[in-house]
Amino acid sequence: MPHEDKGVVGLFADPASAAGAIRELVGRGVKGLSAQSPAPYHELEAALGKPRSRLGWVTLVGGLTGLAAAIAFTTWTSLEMPMLVSGKPIVSTTAYVVIYFELMVLFAGITNFIAVMIGSAMARKGGRFHERATVDRVAVFVPAGSPGEVDAILRRHGAEEVAR
Amino acid sequence: MKDTNAATAIQRDIAGTLGKPGGLWYLLFLTCLGMIAYGGYWWSKMLTEGFGHTGLMHPGMWGMMISSFVFWVGIAHSGTLISAILFLFRAKFRTAVYRSAEAMTVFAVLTAGLFPIIHLGRAWLGFWLFPYPNQRELWVNFRSPLVWDVFAISTYLTVSALFLYTGLVPDIAAIRDTLKGWKKKVYALLALGWRGTDSEWRRYVRGYLFFAALATPLVISVHSVVSWDFAMSITPGWHSTIFAPYFVAGAILSGVAMVITILVPLRKAYKLHSYVTGRHFDMLSRLLILTSLIVTYSYGVEFFMAAYGTNTVERDLFIFRATGDYKFHFWLMVFCNCVAPQLCFLKRVRENIAVLFVISLFVNVGMFLERFNIVATSLSHSHDPFAWGNYWPAQAEIALYIGSFGWFGMWFLLFLKVLPSVSLSEMKEQAAEEAHEAQGEIAHAA
User: Fold this and answer.
1) How confident is the model at residue A113 (pLDDT cuts 50, 70, 90)?
2) Is B129 inside a domain boundary?
3) Same domain, B164 and B252
4) B372-397, pLDDT tens digit by residue?
């Protein structure tokens, strides 16, 4: 879910402080929190408590498509040009296993990359962005209209900067 | 006030290695271009005047080009070992070294892929290797290990390049946000709009894990398939079930050695001592010992099987390898791959970066000789004594081999100046974890 365009942003020097602020805000009933960071900090992930990505299913579908394509392609081309080689069957399944495996991994890899990049692009659509939070700071975004003293909580946990 | 944040320091130190190159970089780059020109000149002669320029002659129809191909594929493998397999095992020491190893993988596969194309002779018909619809309704023979190899190497190049690029995206974004002008635009294009929001990281972390999970069996399959280029034939010395695991272990040995060979000067040139530490070299040298022992065992098993079995041609071939016209290459290979790495059992050696660097060079030489021995001895001493004949590389093949180092070096040098050679995001993540652990220890002590 993209983070809100309007609201409060707190900029932290370290992920532990940002995670502390998120935990307190969540505890006070604030919803729709999001963060931006230069690395995948586990503390932030745990504090935000969002579910694990289901990207694996997309990668699995990609891999299975590759496997099916490999089986279909090797079978079809062998039947299209039925040539006996070393007395092996026309459709030499055992020998084709290597092709099945390689195409399965190739399709899964390409699908995985596209899924990560397209999924990420969809996730960040329209959200706010702080330039330093890809470099050396952690930004916590709190949606507008959140209950409680958001600014004070962010500052108490060590936010270097709180902006609207 | 100076910013003492660990992430700031990591960004400053590692991103600081990019930018305007120094005199040494230009010297190395020009040397690489010179090596490419030397190899390119001989390749152009081979294309225009024929393969008479090479030492290839019946029965030695596979020579140094195929040895070089296997050598470079082997070099590629440890990059995947370090980036994918050690990632799955959560080995923290990989963080500082995996990016250069991964880049090395992509450039080494890019180099390896040149040799089968050159070896075709009529390189412009290289697309015949791939299945494509054509008027004659011809398709490739999927039963052939050489076609398996085409699929394995193409998949490996694609997946390892995507793996490298995926890891680079957050780092490119981090560099983008510290730049201005046209450079910012270029990095913005490459960063694919990355912002580092938690939603992006959730997808990224899963995607990266799947890449590692895909790359691990892939890397094993690729060198197994390369070994089957040999093992599926009935040529003595090649037709062996041990070839796949033996090749995989050898690939990792040569790759780890190449990682050390590259990291030692890289660390010195870019003053990365606080990131690539003695511990990293210690762990790499332990990997060197492990893989060297597996390779040594494989050499022993090959000889044992030949001696204990009843195949006289096989037995004769192994006697020829150790005592025949290639004995110098054979024993030098044994020294480089089996003896020299054992020095790493000594803590003193593991801690001495200069000695480790020399050992890594020995292994690089040894692993090339291994491939040369496999290719040259078996073909020159096969079943029919009437068809025996030694293969020795001509200047053209040596030039191509030298040129391949120039090609590899050129890409690597460009990489060093354009993209971070140590992962920014993983180093920042590790620094935060270490700070967290340190705080926990202080709290526990209090």
Assistant:
1) very high
2) no
3) no
4) 999 999 999 999 999 999 999 999 99
